[in-house]
Specification:
Low-confidence stretches: 1-5
Helix content: 55-70%
Largest sheet: 2 strands, parallel
Number of helices: 15
Oligomer: single chain
Distance between the termini: 98 Å
Mean pLDDT: 84
Strand content: under 5%
Order of helices and strands: HEHHEHHHHHHHHHHHH
Shape: elongated
Radius of gyration: 31 Å
Length: 296
């Protein structure tokens, strides 16, 4: 009868899939659409239904025939992963890998419990959930590194072919975030100094007194001054001066701007004061330095 046909067809196709895999080593996925009253008028609908059924190999496994059910096309089919957000964040913050593993198991058990979760939406939501955990690394790493990690998470999770690979990769990523937190907490001051030097490199032309920098990185100015000298071997003022003078050297050698303009570009409004500092730093005036470098 017509009601028995899908089961008969499914069994035959499963046998064929198994034979192809055994003989050729090829994994096949087949999706079967619902009944169509007219193939000519409903071919597009049938194709989309078969495609939707194929998508569900993500949860049901390769090497199987998936038969379309209307639930597969419901746009609202999604798992509310946000309800695990706080619990997952707490596990990451506490560096509790056992708890994190349990939470991931709960998430995937819920996703594979027999419903029809949209695979692509599930991947996207889980990716966002993992990316949110990078907030625990923000105090330790530079922003551009953080952006690279976000892209790496999107790539690693986005290319997973089934829920088992997705679970494994998600666990590896979250464990790595925990390991990075543990490692960086031991050297938090060193990370802060990296950020501080990067800030100086990008803002040396501005007025950035030690107190401003200390406040920006949440330190007491006195402690920050000691920490900076211990880290770099020179005080903050000398470090900033050295950066500015190096930038001035470059501008003098590679541009034809006048000294007042160069002084302003490296953070000094008083050209005479700049000339004095430059000569003290290099033993030669900026004008003489330009002559020697062959720019005049």
């Amino acid at each position: 009868t017509s009601s028995q046909l899908p089961a008969v067809l499914t069994n035959k196709l499963n046998e064929w899939i198994l034979r192809v895999h055994t003989e050729k080593g090829i994994h096949l996925m087949i999706g079967i659409s619902g009944w169509a009253s007219s193939l000519l008028t409903e071919v597009h609908l049938s194709f989309n239904q078969a495609k939707a059924a194929v998508n569900y190999h993500f949860f049901q496994g390769n090497g199987k025939v998936n038969v379309y059910t209307p639930l597969m096309s419901i746009d609202s089919n999604k798992l509310p992963l946000y309800k695990w957000e706080d619990e997952l964040g707490d596990a990451v913050r506490r560096l509790d890998k056992d708890k994190l593993s349990k939470i991931l198991n709960d998430i995937f058990d819920s996703a594979t419990a027999g419903g029809f979760i949209q695979p692509q939406r599930f991947i996207e939501d889980l990716t966002e959930l993992a990316i949110h955990q990078l907030k625990h690394l923000k105090p330790f790493i530079l922003e551009d590194i953080l952006e690279n990690l976000k892209m790496e998470i999107k790539t690693k999770l986005g290319r997973c072919e089934d829920h088992r690979e997705l679970r494994q990769n998600a666990k590896k990523i979250l464990f790595q975030i925990m390991d990075d937190i543990r490692h960086n907490e031991k050297d938090k001051n060193g990370i802060v100094m990296q950020k501080c030097k990067k800030y100086i490199e990008e803002h040396y032309m501005e007025d950035i007194p030690l107190e401003l920098l200390a406040r920006k990185f949440h330190f007491n100015p006195s402690y920050f001054s000691s920490l900076f000298k211990m880290s770099e071997g020179v005080g903050y003022s000398q470090y900033l001066l050295t950066v500015r003078m190096q930038k001035a050297q470059y501008l003098i050698m590679n541009t034809t701007g006048n000294m007042a303009n160069i002084a302003f570009q490296v953070g000094y409004k008083d050209a005479a004061y700049f000339n004095k500092l430059f000569k003290k730093e290099f033993g030669i005036s900026p004008y003489k330095f330009r002559q020697i470098s062959g720019k005049v």
